[in-house]
Amino acid sequence: MQVEIVMGIAADAGDIDCHEAGDYGGVDEAIEATGAVVVVAGAADGKRYDPLLYRHPQVSVLSLGGNGDAALHELRPHRSLVGDISAAELVATIRAAAGARAGRPV
């Protein structure tokens, strides 16, 4: 999924702050600067995200595939298949992951 599409969906949600990692120099710097709890990334083998999750255990990674599939990667270790993802499901998954990390009920 293109960055512009994700940024637009997040902006339309009204309660999700969305940042591009490149604006901060990289993903690690963006997480540190923004306090991010959810990182949205392109789909890849889940093991690719392990180093990021070990460096930032508070983060969940929502990986989006080009065919609309998505998966939520977390350090617990835990991976939840999201399946075909719509704009509404994207927003709901980000909110749920952020709420769980913040200790709020989902």
Description:
By secondary structure, the protein is of the alpha+beta class. The protein has one domain. It is 38% helix and 22% strand. The chain is built from 4 helices and 4 strands; from the N terminus they run H-H-E-H-E-E-E-H. It has helices at 3-13, 27-34, 50-55, 87-101, and strands at 38-42, 60-64, 69-74, 78-84. Strands 1-2-3-4 form a 4-stranded mixed beta sheet. Strand 3 and strand 4 form a beta hairpin. Helix 1 (3-13) packs across helix 4 (87-101). The longest helix has 15 residues, at 87-101. The two termini are 25 Å apart.
Spatial order of strands in the largest sheet: 1-2-3-4
Q: For the residues shown, what is the average pLDDT?
A: 85
Distance between the termini: 25 Å
Which sequence of SSEs, written as H and E, runs from N to C? HHEHEEEH
The general outline is: globular
Beta-strand residue percentage: 15-25%
Number of domains: 1
| Poorly predicted spans | none
Q: How many DSSP helices?
A: 4
In short:
Helix content is 38%, strand content 22%. It has 106 residues and is of the alpha+beta class.
What is the element layout, followed by pairings?
Blueprint: H1 3-13, H2 27-34, E1 38-42, H3 50-55, E2 60-64, E3 69-74, E4 78-84, H4 87-101
Helix pairs in contact: 1-4
What are the key terms here?
106 residues, alpha+beta, 4-stranded mixed sheet, 4 helices
